């Protein structure tokens, strides 16, 4: 039987995302989440720890490109701007390519993010990254090497399955650049990102999962639900939240011959 992980990114990013993920996870309508440890509040992490189980996995949403580090800015100066905030994804990548980012500082910050989860009673089952940093050319392999050193054994495999738009082709190129660095990690065979480019719907879910199941036995569906939208974000969070709440996904998954699993099944 085919297996599907529905992973909600961005736990802790803001209250609307966190609320949606906690509700959907408690109802069994999604099976996994990844935490932005430098944003998540202590109370939300404690609530999430009570929800974590073999059926609902919790991982790290590696973040070096939004907000401020958990480490002191003085301890990771190559990662932050003059205001002590992380650089944007493109800025971080360009700085890395120019040799302006220190590997030991990235490792220190990722260790701090993992430690934040551990301090809340969470043992991360897997990791992915904000805006797919862990599969950027050259930067991605460096981050994957650090995750391996820190004991992470399961990660998201970016494939942009079924996406043939301009961004999808770029993501596929990024995925190819980090293929060798993924060796030794357990990963789903495909990633479905349908809801990143169109409002959530039964038709979109069915199309994305059916396409991915043709080439992989374990598939991850990336989701970004929220009880309200986030200003300035292209994500359509409320339609995703409403779709998962409807329960339609479970029925479609059964029709496709699949079962919902957590990252523990990878």
Automatic annotation (TrEMBL):
**InterPro entries per UniProt:** Glyco_hydro/deAcase_b/a-brl, YdjC-like
One of its Pfam families is YdjC
| Alphabetically ordered keywords of this record | Carbohydrate metabolism, Hydrolase, Magnesium, Metal-binding
- Keyword hit for Hydrolase: yes
Q: Which cofactors?
A: Mg(2+)
| PANTHER family membership | CARBOHYDRATE DEACETYLASE (PTHR31609:SF1), YDJC DEACETYLASE FAMILY MEMBER (PTHR31609)
This protein's name: ChbG/HpnK family deacetylase
**What organism does the UniProt record list as the source?**
Hymenobacter ginsengisoli
């Amino acid at each position: 039987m085919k297996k599907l992980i529905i992973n909600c990114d961005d736990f802790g990013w803001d209250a609307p995302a966190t609320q949606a993920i906690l509700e959907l996870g408690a109802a069994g309508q999604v099976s996994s989440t990844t935490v932005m440890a430098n944003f998540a509040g202590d109370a939300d992490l404690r609530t999430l720890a009570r929800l974590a189980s073999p059926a609902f996995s919790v991982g790290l949403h590696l973040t070096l490109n939004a907000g401020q580090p958990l480490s002191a800015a003085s301890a990771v100066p190559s990662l932050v701007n003059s205001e002590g905030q992380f650089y944007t994804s493109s800025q971080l990548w360009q700085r890395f390519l120019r040799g302006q980012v220190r590997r030991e500082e990235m490792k220190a910050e990722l260790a701090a993010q993992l430690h934040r989860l551990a301090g809340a009673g969470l043992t991360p089952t897997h990791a992915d990254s904000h805006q797919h940093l862990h599969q950027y050319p050259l930067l991605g392999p460096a981050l994957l090497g650090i995750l391996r050193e820190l004991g992470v054994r399961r990660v998201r495999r970016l494939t942009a399955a079924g996406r043939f738009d301009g961004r999808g082709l770029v993501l596929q190129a990024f995925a190819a650049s980090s293929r060798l660095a993924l060796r030794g990690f357990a990963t789903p065979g495909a990633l479905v990102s349908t809801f990143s480019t169109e409002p959530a719907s039964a038709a979109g879910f069915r199309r994305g999962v059916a396409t991915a199941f043709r080439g992989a036995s374990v598939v991850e569906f990336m989701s970004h639900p929220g009880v309200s939208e986030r200003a300035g974000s292209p994500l359509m969070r409320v339609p995703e939240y409403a779709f998962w709440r409807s329960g339609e996904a479970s029925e479609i998954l059964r029709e496709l011959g699949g079962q919902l699993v957590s990252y523990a099944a990878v």
